[in-house]
Amino acid sequence: MQKYLLLIIVGLGLAASAAYLLAAKPVAAQTEQSSAVFDADGKLGLPTGFRNWVFVGAPLTPNGLNNGKANFPEYHHVYIEQKNVDAYLKTGSFPEGTVIVKELTRVLDPTFPDGSRTEPSGRGYFNGQYNGIDLTVKDSKRFAKTNGWGFFTFGHHPMPYDKTAAEKPVSECAGCHIANVAATDMTWVQFYPLLRDKPGY
Amino acid sequence: MQKYLLLIIVGLGLAASAAYLLAAKPVAAQTEQSSAVFDADGKLGLPTGFRNWVFVGAPLTPNGLNNGKANFPEYHHVYIEQKNVDAYLKTGSFPEGTVIVKELTRVLDPTFPDGSRTEPSGRGYFNGQYNGIDLTVKDSKRFAKTNGWGFFTFGHHPMPYDKTAAEKPVSECAGCHIANVAATDMTWVQFYPLLRDKPGY
User: Fold this and answer.
1) What whole-number distance in Å separates Cα of residue A190 and Cα of residue A169?
2) According to the model, what pLDDT value does residue A10 have?
3) CA B168 to CA B69: how far, in whole Å?
């Protein structure tokens, strides 16, 4: 009996919490869904916490295989928040406000011309230092001209990264996504097994 | 006034929840901390949900750079639960029960002998299909002979993976960790920027 009384009190408490929260925050829900924060000039703030998001893939374009100067040096760790991964898996498109972070790392001290080195696990590539962030945000109104996505970079260099970023010109980022991956919501899902093959977590 | 009444009810509800949960689960806390589940024969069950854990690094040993037969073909995506990453960052060692999952993927359809291919982002490597799981569990009593860690594989092949795994002999896994990374709690933190360089999330 005491158990049921406790459960009733818990239930009342939770119902009251819900009512209170709904009453207290009637407006801000829309913008709260996104990790993207823009300033008055339309510049995007550096995101935080993304290394704790869902990792979806690690394309690697070593400088050693790209005439010493890869466009994206060199590992690309790609992270998306779970709620947005889940929505993509269900619907085939990302919700408004979705942020996709591509964090770069260099390869660890190359000893071969192709950028690779030998470790006990074999010859290959290993993550060196963090080396910058490229990022895309879905906002169909703000970025209507580029299929609903805006593209930003916080620098291709070691930490600390740039604190804010202005939208990049179409020719530098969006153009390539429009040409190649417009059919998969502007995202290279063909390189991300979790999104491409849909095995779940 | 109505607001404070609601807050009081919420508080009572939460206090009752806490009291109920503490009273109802006095014993199971210790084993609940680990994602490792062993059967009566000491075999480990295939973990679930790990693609949602914290990703720490992606070493890559392509078959093309390892005489066609890498020991770990080919990308190694390494995942650890956040509570255990946090503990390592704080103390320099992992808590009892920590599970580290290394999920393999093949490289996507190679066109060069080294396993690489060319995409709009440059020449390099891209994640192909999932290709197996190696896993290590920290349990200082169960695995006292191998520095407190047990080593398992659920197969180096596409999904579905093996449902259970027996501990691997020292010569196949633990030996290499003991020889190379005993000082960093048997873990290759030199390849994982989040653990090596400690930038936070």
Assistant:
1) 24
2) 53
3) 20
